[in-house]
Amino acid sequence: MISKSIETAQHRVEQHNFEIRKQLLEYDNVMSKQREVIYGQRRQVLEGVALKDEILAMAERIAGEIVGRFSRGGSELFTAEDSPQLSGEMKAKFGLDFDPALWEGKNKSETEENIFQHLADYYEEKEKARRLGDDALS
Question: Over the Cα atoms of the chain, what is R_g?
Fold first, then answer.
């Protein structure tokens, strides 16, 4: 009876350890894929490949996710009450101040479009300044 209890306990511990190793391997695979993407993009930057389209696509996706979290529905309009939270979230993600006029009184799709256009314009300004010899994109 004692041997059976010890054997059962040992089997449970081995199963638990196996699950831990399995999760660690899955985590390592995810990290490896992310590392490949980041190093690939880094290599492209070092080789002088323009990543503008990818950067703008990422910015559009992130802005859309943020707006989606704050929208109550596709056709409902954003109000002044939404401004502090939406402004704060956008500032945290993009490091830019956004004019509340970009979303106040606008629905979800208009807001996404306005914010993305603001980001694209900002990127264009930075890119133009860089071509003219000013500070690098930051």
Answer: 24
Domain count, the chain: 2
Calpha distance 75→78 (Å, rounded)? 10
Do 67 and 44 fall into the same domain?
no
pTM strictly above 0.85: no
Angle CA 22–27–33, to nearest 5: 130
pLDDT digits (tens, 9 = 90+) for 37-82: 999 989 988 888 888 888 899 999 999 998 888 877 656 777 777 7
> Alpha-carbon distance 78 to 99, whole Å?
13
13 vs 66: CA distance, rounded Å = 43
Half-sphere exposure (Cβ direction) of 114: Cα atoms closer than 13 Å? 17
Q: Helix, strand, or coil here: 106?
A: coil
